[in-house]
Each structure stands twice: as C-alpha cells, then as structure tokens.
C-alpha cells in the first residue's frame, strides 16, 4: 500500500567529488560489518532523511515538526520537508547529516545547488540559516528529544560560492533544564575558509501539549 520512503541522505548522481569525499570520510566511520559477519560500532551514525515528516515519521518528534494533526487533509497530503521539497537532484539542498554521540557533535555536509542563489554566484543567507537550523536542530533532537528552535544567532563571515560543498559542524555548549544550547560553524570542504558561525537555543517541548 505504501511504497518504501526514499532516504535522501544517500549519494545520487548530482553529488560532486567534494560531497562524495566528505560523505565517505564520515560514512567509513559509521557502524560496519566485520569479516565474521558481526557488527563493529563506529563513532559516527548517518541520520536518514525523508521528504515527509507526517506519513513517513520515524519518531514522535517528527510529528511535532509537521504540526500535522491540525492541518487539513489536503495540506497534509501536500506537506513536504522544506529542505527536501525540490525534486530535481542537485538543484537545491543536497545534504547528509552524521551524529557522534560520544563527542556530542553532529555534522552536515551540504552541496548548495543553483536554486539557492542569493547574491549573484553565492548562496542565499536564508538558505544558509535553514541548513544551520537543520543541523543544529537534528543535533539538539538527538541529544534532548523533541525540541523547537527558540533562538538562532548567525554571523555571516564570508560568502559561500553557489555549487560548492561546505561542512556544518554542530557542538553542544550546555544543557539547562529544558534548554539545549549548541554552536555551529560552516567551513569550506577543506576547512580553510570560515563561512558562517552561529549559536542556537532549542527548547524541549511536550508532545502532548502540542497535540492538545
Ligand atoms: C529523538 C531523537 C530523534 C532524532 C531524529 C533526528 C532527525 C532529524 C531530521 C531532520 C531534522 C530537521 C530539523 C529541522 C529543525 C527545524 C526546527 C524549527 O525550525 S522549529 C520552527 C521554528 N521555531 C518555532 O516556531 C518556535 C516558536 N516558539 C515556541 O514555540 C515557544 O516559544 C518555545 C517552544 C520555543 C518555548 O515556549 P514554552 O512556552 O514551551 O517555554 P518558555 O517558558 O517560553 O521557555 C522555556 C525556557 O526557554 C527560554 N527561552 C524561550 N525562548 C527564548 C529565546 N528566544 N531566547 C532565549 N531564551 C528563550 C525561556 O526564558 C525559558 O527559560 P527558563 O526555563 O525560564 O530559564
């Protein structure tokens, strides 16, 4: 009845060499099968990514983000996760997230497509903010369960060339009661250029409160 949802965080033909290099770098440090058929745990875990959060929810957390229960059936059926809503591969946000629970870090690898243009030849600041929210939000959710972004503070240091691949690194600063504070840096794929710095506050939410 339901087809298997597509996991968009796996390589596709639009991924360039830098995107593939960084993907392999982290993916090779994820759980792997040993020669004896057992499983060897690596420090990183790839976080799967779908284009819908309502029907294809993998956790209750996703239902919160969809706000689905309040939407009309028409809107529900059309709702798509913003970062996965453009069908053409490579045209907008091509990204994959990895989480490292021991180091309390999360990384995002982003290849920014031609539909994300802001200033001529460079990525739109709102698209950069979207990706920072996505990486830090996923990180906070992994750490603290269901959360909403309460504050996102961004310093844009150097523009990101359209079509380039960048690395977003999110680190836990502290947790205080319902509050999870994280920092994020966006750098060029070789780490040589700092593009963007951000801090974010996520507040834990009660799923029951939202549904009520
Ligand atoms: C289980 C793991 C599963 C992992 C799976 C991972 C898969 C991931 C896959 C894909 C990831 C995609 C990720 C996307 C991420 C996107 C996230 C968004 O974009 S969310 C949309 C934008 N955000 C909103 O629309 C919020 C609107 N605001 C609110 O709803 C409320 O203001 C809320 C919930 C944030 C807080 O409201 P209150 O009533 O619950 O709580 P109060 O009492 O106001 O605040 C609690 C504490 O936080 C402080 N606080 C609240 N807002 C603050 C602010 N803006 N600045 C500073 N402090 C603030 C308060 O002062 C208070 O602190 P004191 O406890 O008293 O110390």
From TrEMBL:
Its EC number is 3.1.2.2. GO terms for cellular component: mitochondrial inner membrane; mitochondrial intermembrane space; ruffle membrane. One of its GO terms (molecular function) is hydrolase activity. InterPro entries: HotDog_dom_sf, THEM4/THEM5_acyl-CoA_thioest, Thioestr_dom. Pfam families: 4HBT. It is found in: Cell projection, Ruffle membrane; Cytoplasm; Mitochondrion inner membrane; Mitochondrion intermembrane space. Belongs to the THEM4/THEM5 thioesterase family. This is Acyl-coenzyme A thioesterase THEM4.
